[in-house]
């Protein structure tokens, strides 16, 4: 439970807000590289943290991310022509390069130097892990490039998708941090997914439906441990990484399956991008796995073709199937792990009123994540350097699922399992 | 004509408003029993007086009406599982009984007593006349159970339907109170309806198109008399009952036809439920009558299948047929008595600006109904007991249509006709 | 670039605003005569300058334009019956004539004189050039009737269409004033249109893509000269007329083609009517020309059948064709001259933020038009007479395209070409 004022601070991310200033201190997953696949392809609308932008790839393959609206008369560059190393506005022909320089201004006399005074807002971009990332913050604070494990692997080992979620980013991310909902929202679907099925972990998960949570601060965010009883001597620990400001990594089931991760990025205060990533550190994804991911299984979603909007959505009550609910094929009647999550999160309304919550011990991770974000926002407001999650070291972490003696704290027992070892397998049962 | 401030007082019904407090002193028609037909059926969203609620019928058949949003993290209970005498939230499994007690909280340790502190808002419900009624006010003021004639008859003698109206409840109810519009809005349709056709009353109605109105206060609301000249000695009186806060009964044509009644209940400030009821005090409804009512004839409406939204609605200009208007088959070109009313009421906008009206003598009933509601709202604000319409006695009334000598006041001449006599026929020509 | 306060003054046109008061000093193109084609035809909703109105043609063929909402209980007169020289409200039968007098009030007793107190707001209308015009301002300031050349020609020489534009009127009109966008937005489409093709003017237009602009005040608005180099001695001048408050005339290509003109009229602050007119002063329009105009070619638009809303619109990204853009068949990928304009204008949002613009020398006409409107609005606020564009003389002007010696100012060299000479051809190369 937050005060109204705390809730406001947490959720508002436009330029000029405290949380907006914090989030602009990080590299931001902006769009899929598949959206601007080749030189001089059509420009694409992108909205991030309330700012409306246009992404394009110029004739040399360079990435540009500009203010959507032309500096001249504010027509949208969505209608612009991507031609000869620049994007040319369709209204009067002003042309911009990827850095926002106005490189041609045909509406003015040739001798005019007006164009030198024009600078279209432009953000630097990089490409990594199938994602175009941008940095929208002050140049002096530009952090290390993103080094999340999935972003550093060869393309053949990674699958990335995104979907539009009709809630504030925080509401979506809280679902990613909160592993206690798994036992309910996904209760009847744990066995369906070949990525869980038949693992030792799943047996323990089902045997103890009331896990205890231990949450501790990591350098880059939080380590969220959920422990279940196995026998008199051992706990089964599932350890989730939350990396500031919006990354989560799901604890694995077995090592033969790909890992899963997410990013939750504000579009505006009432919508966000839910990014979903499967990856395997030591092998290519198989064709059958890729086919299933493309279909929208598991943590991915069935999107309306040609869009990143889900087929099951608020306008159709997420295609709820009351028969499936009655027959215990789906706890809420909604089909699919992802849709089970976002249907519930969206059911709270686009911005949840956190003054009305009644939080229990299982909500510890959510409470601490909010606290850490609010504290970091205060640091950012004072222009502090070295925020959690800024350093590439903070990215090089893994989630894990392990058996440990009851006497061993999970962060010690799993210490090595929680660090990325390039080329080496992860730890999971 | 009202002042802006009076209009605001009249139309706002959320918790915390003056009119909201008044309306919460009465039993409220909440939903059709057919919407939650059997134990453990799917829960249903219900919105009343601005409050978003979930209705369900538990394993024992008990009725529950809870705050829609789970006390824990405010996910909607619409996705909840109705199981073993409670509704279980699909997010983390908190489970509530019909009284709002949290009867299971599986996300917390077994020893936790947190759940005892949780109370989901819950309103008492009863079932009567095919309707689930609820009471949303203070326990100490809970009034008599509803005893409207139609609510007390065997199922075989009653037909109830509802439709969504896209206006404030008051605008809809004013149409029910105002019998002077009948001569215009429904002008060319009076003969179509077998429920009017061929009665003596209809002959008199058509012979004098400028009725005079006399409105007097009854114990529970208003008696609205519309008198028409028959000959030198007699008036034809049509007497409408308005029962606080939202019930109207239509004066009958003949005694062989069923009676008609309405209730007008706020969903929020811009929409309401229009309830329409046909009933006969002394006989079962016939199959042909029921078929016609199911089809949406008369005071009922043609709804989009599977919904309570009308097929003719604002988005399609109520399927207006200008040819029918030109050829005098419908005065406004809209088909059906109900649609003729709600099309005009919605055409004023969701909340009519009553500061712009120019009211005449034929609007006397509307003027007095507003006044009585505003006065009762003041009484309720002072926590007064004994509001009009609270007492079951106030419900046991009938409308009537009678011939009376010109010298006899209608409330005297029709006195006996205006009281429910169980098992006895009503008075009508 | 304007201050926020100037922008607000420019765009707000509801009753009570400064610009609203100015625009109400002129005759307003309100609807096409084809919308109310014959006596007693159905009434039509019309919104102008934020006011919701109903247009009808009475039994005698007289034009009425009334407040949409009945004085009695504010039901919409859209559902009214147009009968026997008046429009009768469908709710209680109050009937109004074209002057807004209440000519029948059947809900009140015959002896009542209440109806004499009722006056429905009504605006005078005239019919000219296929358009119904109205005057919404103070009677003492009613100006000359509109005498734009196209409004005074026989029907056979004129074609008028309208379309809904989802922007403020000013944003649309700025496109009509601004001829510098032609070289880009319409770049690849100049040859398609038989109305331009093969003219001497088009050759010069394409040879010099950086015209210089000279803008001077005319009695009724602005003369906007765009000059291009032809050879050492001559300029090719294209001269646009802007007539206060919302008319533009396109400079012609050749004299064999019809002329083109526009009017840009506020519906409310976020939408406007874009009127498009083709006309020839000395001959009938040909069948093939009319066919093409009906189809929506040239300055007209392809509308959704039965509506004045364009088939290509914001909801479908104007049916943008990226292949056509890549292959240089359309600069923005949008098809059609009109759609190329309104897509870009709408892309700025319904109300452009003029504090963010960066205007160059090619924007001189826009700058001066804004200035003149704001100045006239100040005059109107002081109740001044003789505003630019009020006098019929101001309407009797033409645009022109001419070759002139470099030493001759365009307003002198083209002086005669810029005046309407009834029955005589216009001047164009």
UniProtKB/TrEMBL annotation, chains A, B, C:
Entry-linked Gene3D superfamilies: Naphthalene 1,2-dioxygenase Alpha Subunit, Chain A, domain 1 (3.90.380.10), Rieske [2Fe-2S] iron-sulphur domain (2.102.10.10)
Entry coiled-coil feature ranges: none
PROSITE patterns linked: RIESKE
Record flagged with keyword Oxidoreductase: yes
Regions crossing the membrane: none
Keyword annotations from UniProtKB, A to Z: 2Fe-2S, Iron, Iron-sulfur, Metal-binding, Oxidoreductase
Signal sequence extent: none
Keyword field contains Membrane: no
CDD domains the record matches: RHO_alpha_C_DMO-like (cd08878), Rieske_RO_Alpha_PhDO_like (cd03479)
Domain Rieske, residue spans: 27-134
Name of the molecule in the record: Phenylpropionate dioxygenase-like ring-hydroxylating dioxygenase large terminal subunit
């Amino acid at each position: 439970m937050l005060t109204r004022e705390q809730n406001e601070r947490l959720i508002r991310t436009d330029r000029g807000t405290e949380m907006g200033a914090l989030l602009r201190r990080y590299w931001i997953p902006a769009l899929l590289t598949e959206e601007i696949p080749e030189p001089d392809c059509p420009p694409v609308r992108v909205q991030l943290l309330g700012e409306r932008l246009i992404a394009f790839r110029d004739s040399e393959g360079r990435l540009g991310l500009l203010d959507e609206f032309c500096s001249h008369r504010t027509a949208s560059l969505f209608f612009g022509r991507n031609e000869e190393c620049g994007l040319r506005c369709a209204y009067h022909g002003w042309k911009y390069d990827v850095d926002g320089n106005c490189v041609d201004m045909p509406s003015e006399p040739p001798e005019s130097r007006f164009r030198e005074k024009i600078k279209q807002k432009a953000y630097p971009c990089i490409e990594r892990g199938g994602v175009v990332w941008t940095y929208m913050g002050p140049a002096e604070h530009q952090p290390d490039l993103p080094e999340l494990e999935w972003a550093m692997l060869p393309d053949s080992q990674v699958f990335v998708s995104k979907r539009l979620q009709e809630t504030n980013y925080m509401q979506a991310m809280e679902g990613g941090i909160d592993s206690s909902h798994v036992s309910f929202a996904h209760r009847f679907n744990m066995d369906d997914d070949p990525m869980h099925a038949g693992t030792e972990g799943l047996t323990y998960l089902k045997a103890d439906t009331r896990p205890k949570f231990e949450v501790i601060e990591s350098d880059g965010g939080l380590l969220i441990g959920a422990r279940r009883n196995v026998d008199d001597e051992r706990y089964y620990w599932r350890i989730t990484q939350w990396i500031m400001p919006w990354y989560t990594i799901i604890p694995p089931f077995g090592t033969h399956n790909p890992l899963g991760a997410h990013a939750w990025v504000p579009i505006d205060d009432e919508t966000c991008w839910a990014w979903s990533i499967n990856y395997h550190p030591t092998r290519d994804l198989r064709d059958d796995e890729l086919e299933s991911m493309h279909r929208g299984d598991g943590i991915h979603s069935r999107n309306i073709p040609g869009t990143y909007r889900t087929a099951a959505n608020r306008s159709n009550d997420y295609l709820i199937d009351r028969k499936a609910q009655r027959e215990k094929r789906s706890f809420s009647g909604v089909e699919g792990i992802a849709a089970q999550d976002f249907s519930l999160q969206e059911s709270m309304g686009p911005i949840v009123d956190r003054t009305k919550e009644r939080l229990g011990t299982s909500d510890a991770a959510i409470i601490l994540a909010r606290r850490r974000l609010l504290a970091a926002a205060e640091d950012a407001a004072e222009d502090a350097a070295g925020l959690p999650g800024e350093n590439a070291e903070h990215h090089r972490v893994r989630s894990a699922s392990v058996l440990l003696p009851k006497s061993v704290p999970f962060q010690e027992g799993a210490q090595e399992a929680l660090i990325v070892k390039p080329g080496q397998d992860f730890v999971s049962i």
